[in-house]
Amino acid sequence: MRVLLVEDDLSLASGLESALGREGFAVNHVARGRDALAALRAESHDTVILDLGLPDMDGLQVLAELRAAGDRTPVLLLTARGEADDKVVGLDRGADDYLAKPFDMQELAARLRVIARRLSTTASNRVIVGAVALDSAAHSVTVDGAPVQLPRREYMLLKALMENAGKVLTRSTLENHLYSWGEEVSSNALEVHIHHLRRKLPEGFIRTVRGIGYSIALT
């Protein structure tokens, strides 16, 4: 899941990037509202985490401009404001959820997973394709009931493929799921992850579509 984090507190932003990265999210960060709007015009994201107290414009204004432009990307608001009115206005302007600072990092990750489920064709944390089961809440994978240990990137890659079983995901789409802005990515990094995954999964589970990308067949 690709997340755009809009937060001017650089210490908090750094902590969120690290914590959410460990939970399997690819996080891109901007500190200003105008930069957020420009980023969303340039590239698609699955979710926006939007702080209300930004230095150049109010987060509610960012949300209003986003929705006025027809962008329906889910938005989770972060606010240090205690007044209920701010939350109500945010939800009325098209926000999907909100959290008041300070908040628990695990709760934020759980709320992002709820948003991901809304976007997905699945209605639960578990995705099962053939002998392979992935549980996003437990961050676990099993093959024929036996647990399989996957590093973070391999887990993120498998999750993207399984949640889109039956579809072909392009190389660029998969790289966007795995890497945040500014990360150095070698030219064969994706192929290396696919190779390692295939060694741990049933034969033929991940299919190469030459010149396009990879897919998992619905079974």
UniProtKB/TrEMBL annotation:
GO molecular function terms attached to this record: phosphorelay response regulator activity; transcription cis-regulatory region binding
Modified-residue entries (4-aspartylphosphate), positions: 51
Entry's localization field: Cytoplasm
PROSITE patterns: OMPR_PHOB, RESPONSE_REGULATORY
GO cellular component: cytosol; protein-DNA complex
PANTHER family in the record: REGULATOR OF RPOS, TRANSCRIPTIONAL REGULATORY PROTEIN QSEB
Name of the featured protein: Response regulator transcription factor
Source organism of the structure: Parahaliea mediterranea
